[in-house]
Amino acid sequence: MGILIIAISCVISATLYRAGGMSQESTAKPAWIPLWMRKSWVRDGLCPLVLLGAVIALFGLKIDYWWAYLLTYGLSWGALSTYWDFITGDDNFYLHGLGCSLATIPLLWCEVPWWIILLHGIVCTVGMGLWSSYTDTDWLEEKGRGVLFVL
Question: Is the model's pLDDT at 26 over the cut of 70?
Answer without folding.
Answer: no
